[in-house]
Design goal:
With 221 residues, this protein is an all-alpha fold. The protein has a single domain, classed as Rna Polymerase Sigma Factor, Chain: A (Orthogonal Bundle). Helix content is 60%, strand content 0%. The longest helix is centred in the middle third of the chain and has 19 residues. The chain is globular and about 55 Å long. The protein starts with 16 loop residues before the first helix and ends in a 5-residue tail after the last helix.
Length: 221
């Protein structure tokens, strides 16, 4: 993957993923941090749709990123880098789930960052509503849950979701419709819920994952 000379003077943060990959392969290894921060939320939500133990989720994210870094030269550009990365993360999560003991499926509470502008009562109400929706999503069968998280929570298109999960688009549409129906049955409608606020990925967690990955691949932040 070659990089035109003219792009070398462009700020890395403005470059497309594929251009950043080319610069990393050209020797600018620290730029990998840009890709980590750019895709952390998506990768978190993807892994979280399979593994529901928070500590395990972060471990799986780091392992997936390290694997991606080590095999960055294998990225051929036939799909988007984000799709390629999502597949690696999904494979890692599924492999961990298969290896897990049946009695090791305990879950940890989600981490939330409180908004200082809200009252304690508002935060408690928001947390309760979010917990209701999160529990409902967790209760979905995995093949419905993963499609729902990528499409409805993360906001991927039907095509991107299909590519990420190696499914055809009709299957994605069918599973998404079924997932929504199941969620409607599981949730007591108390107020309008904001789907995009589910599975938050706060800056502190982003920093922790980035630091862990950079340490493992030998890059000083």
């Amino acid at each position: 993957m070659s990089l035109p000379r003219s792009t070398r003077d462009v700020p890395p943060s403005t470059l497309a993923d594929e251009e950043i990959v080319a610069r990393i392969l050209g020797g600018e290894r620290p730029l990998f941090e840009l890709l980590l921060r750019r895709h952390n939320e998506r990768i978190y939500r993807t892994v979280r749709s399979v593994l529901r133990n928070e500590a395990e989720v972060e471990d799986a994210m780091q392992e997936a990123y390290v694997h991606a870094f080590q095999h960055l030269g294998d990225f051929a550009g036939r799909s988007r880098f984000s799709t390629w990365l999502t597949r690696i993360a999904l494979n890692e999560a599924c492999a961990r789930r298969r290896r897990a003991r049946p009695d090791a499926a305990g879950e940890e509470e989600m981490e939330h960052v409180a908004d200082p502008r809200t009252t304690p009562e508002q935060r408690a109400s928001d947390a309760e509503l979010q917990r209701v929706l999160l529990d409902a999503i967790d209760g979905l069968p995995e093949h419905f849950r993963t499609v729902f998280v990528l499409r409805a929570v993360q906001g991927l298109s039907i095509e991107e979701t299909a590519d990420s999960l190696d499914l055809n688009e009709d299957t994605v549409k069918t599973r998404l419709h079924r997932a929504k129906n199941l969620l409607q049955r599981a949730i007591l409608v108390r107020s309008e819920l904001q789907i995009g606020a589910v599975l938050p990925f706060p800056a502190t967690r982003c920093d922790r994952v980035v630091a862990g990955v950079l340490s493992r691949i030998g890059i000083q932040p």
